[in-house]
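FAQ

Q: What does a record look like?
A: Structure on top, sequence underneath. For example:
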């Protein structure tokens, strides 16, 4: 896949340590040290207007801010953004736009409480807009490529393996019928922060979603399916489960859902015709 030109946004690189060593006592009364993930608040200001406060690890705060603005439709294009400045002394992210046609009042006037950890709300109108999204019939994803993806996830060094208590999201591109290539893997305290960070990186790089595959450790709820459809990615995989509303939205947008993905095992909940099996299925 040919790479597209990347949007030019003046940004800080304000990542902070995401794992911290702490002293504990085990069940035998012995002192030990272990690791826990960090958690920080980050308040987003859009053209000096406070929008939201997110709880995050802080590993990729600029990407998180960009993806949040994209998925909440608070900015039309990454090209509309002049700068993103993250300052951990004030726990804030200041976003300055070059131009904006978005009616922020209209969008933010309606909030929907969600099941998301680390975010918890999405702005109104998203559900209605889903009726306008219909993913194309193709492309295909081979069974052996799915197994390859899951093996790469299993072998990847992660914060979760060291400290637990986080969710991960990753996006892959095809590298042939039987292989995939990892583009980005982001971990955060909530799966919605992680998917927003991935979305921001893809938006910045101007990567289209048609040839990509998305994986998350969290369940595929309605808002996760909404974000996948907004990115134009036809495949969502999870090692967890799927909610009823998530499945209904996947059916409306023609998005292929794979759940309980582990090792060589997976379950297809929607649009199975995109999956090419290694052997004929009975």
């Amino acid at each position: 896949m040919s790479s597209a030109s990347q949007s030019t946004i003046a940004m800080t690189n304000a990542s902070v340590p995401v794992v911290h060593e702490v002293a504990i006592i085990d069940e035998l009364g012995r002192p030990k040290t272990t690791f826990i993930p960090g958690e920080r608040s980050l308040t987003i200001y859009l053209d000096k207007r406070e929008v939201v406060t997110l709880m995050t690890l802080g590993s990729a705060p600029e990407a998180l801010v960009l993806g949040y603005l994209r998925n909440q439709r608070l900015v039309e294009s990454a090209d509309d953004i002049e700068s993103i400045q993250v300052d951990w002394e004030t726990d804030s992210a200041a976003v300055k736009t070059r131009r904006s046609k978005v009616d922020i009042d209209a969008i933010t006037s309606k909030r929907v409480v969600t099941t998301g950890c680390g975010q918890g709300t999405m702005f109104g109108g998203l559900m209605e807009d889903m009726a306008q999204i219909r993913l194309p019939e193709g492309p295909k994803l081979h069974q052996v490529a799915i197994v390859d993806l899951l093996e790469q996830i299993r072998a990847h060094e992660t914060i979760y393996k060291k400290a637990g208590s986080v969710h991960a999201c990753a996006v892959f591109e095809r590298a042939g019928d039987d292989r995939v290539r990892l583009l980005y893997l982001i971990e955060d305290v909530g799966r919605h922060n992680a998917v927003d960070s991935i979305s921001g990186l893809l938006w910045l790089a101007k990567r289209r979603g048609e040839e990509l595959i998305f994986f998350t450790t969290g369940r595929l709820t309605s808002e996760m399916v909404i974000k996948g459809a907004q990115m134009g990615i036809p495949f969502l995989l999870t090692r967890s489960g799927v909610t009823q509303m998530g499945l209904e939205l996947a059916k409306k947008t023609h998005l292929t859902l794979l759940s309980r993905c582990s090792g060589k095992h997976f379950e297809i909940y929607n649009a199975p015709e995109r999956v090419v099996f290694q052997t004929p299925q009975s």
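Q: Is there anything notable about this one?
A: Residues 128 and 227 are 14 Å apart (CA to CA).
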